[in-house]
Amino acid sequence: MLSRIDLRGSSAAQLSREKLAPVLPRAGLDVEAAIEKVRPICDDVRHRGAAAVREYTLRFDGVDLPGTRVPAAALAGALETLDPGLRAALEETVRRLRLVCRAQLPVDVVTSLGPGATVTERYVAVSRAGVYVPGGLVTYPSSVLMNVVPAQVAGVPQIAVASPPQENGLPSPAVLAACALLGIEEVHAAGGAQAIAMLGYGTAECAPVDTITGPGNIYVAAAKRLLLGTISTDAEAGPTEIAIIADETADPEFVAADLIAQAEHDPLAACLLITTDPGLADRVDKALVPQIAAARHRERVEAALAGQSACVLVDDTGAALATSDAWAPEHLEIQTQDASSLARRVRNAGAIFVGPYAPVSLGDYLAGSNHVLPTGGTARHTAGLSVLTFLRAIHLVEYERDALAEVAPHIDALGGAEDLAAHVAAVRVRIPRTEP
Known about the structure:
Elements: E1 4-6, H1 17-20, H2 31-48, H3 50-61, H4 72-80, H5 84-104, E2 109-114, E3 117-125, E4 128-132, H6 141-154, E5 158-163, H7 173-181, E6 186-189, H8 192-201, E7 211-213, H9 218-227, E8 232-233, E9 241-246, H10 252-263, E10 270-275, H11 278-294, H12 298-307, E11 309-313, H13 317-327, E12 331-335, H14 339-343, E13 351-354, H15 360-365, E14 391-399, H16 401-417, H17 421-428
Parallel strand pairs: 1-11, 4-5, 4-7, 5-6, 7-8, 9-10, 9-12, 10-11, 12-13
Antiparallel strand pairs: 2-3, 3-14
Helix pairs in contact: 2-3, 2-8, 2-9, 4-7, 5-6, 6-7, 8-9, 10-11, 10-12, 16-17
């Protein structure tokens, strides 16, 4: 069922990113090309504001809105009519997320550099955050929680949510209910690049934000990159992906189910099984057949597994780990005999799921971890969304006169070397050289 890539005979040291980049499958997204498509949309929103957002919503979503702001009554009504089981699940997700997010909160760090000389690192939340919640093939109330809860715990005073409208002119009822559950009062019916531009540049209906987070399609990613500098962002989330490192101890039914679970997100989802056991590869192929046949989103699953997915054969877990690190997956499952110790050797992954009873589905909803994670290999340099996404570290420098006098000669030397005499003078006007 899965195409096979045989890397046996290659040691871990030989399995570098440069060597494996053309070998390992992944959906290709040309964000730079998409930027040229979204640039006129974003520029139009920047200049014409809410009117442009409404026009693009009509063009792309087929919905003619009187305004983007969702009425308070619609938010309250969505929560009142929410299925009790779904509400209980959302509430438990919020509880677990808040526990993890509170543990992430950094404390101010005061460093003493000598008598009368301290540098304090303070963590300050952004003033206003924008959260984008996609609404394409599937609607994601869980994404509301994953973005909003860290922002709330970080202490962001204003949070605006944007999500594409459905035929009735409102975002998904489940998305609205999740917003209401968290006390979010500002929700906008807007999607795509126009929503990112609305949040970043501001309109008459939506004040500009400082940070935009949340996943979306390639046009959302392109708009976030285009606005970078005007706002900060979490990451450019592309099609979802999973790598599973498994040995002969792995349950093939579990592995097959986890591959399918990721593939049902998107026909462009990438699924990689990395195994030391060719027999397991055969058993997983066998387990995939009935599970795919029973899948609700069978066409998506088949497209993803046939498109940019594969089974990679390696000699040992060291080579498996090197392969995974080179691919830098959004999600990494480890289903091996030594799963816990192997997990602690991973360098590049958005999130790691250890052992047979920690599937990615758990992380998508109730693990307490965050499911907004770096894709496309960006886990090499980018972390998943957390409280830290919404915080900035600010240095508070406090020096007394004697402490400044102690370092003044060094400032003389450095300022002189860089030909910045005014820098030196700014110190010497306080600490004259003639002083004993």
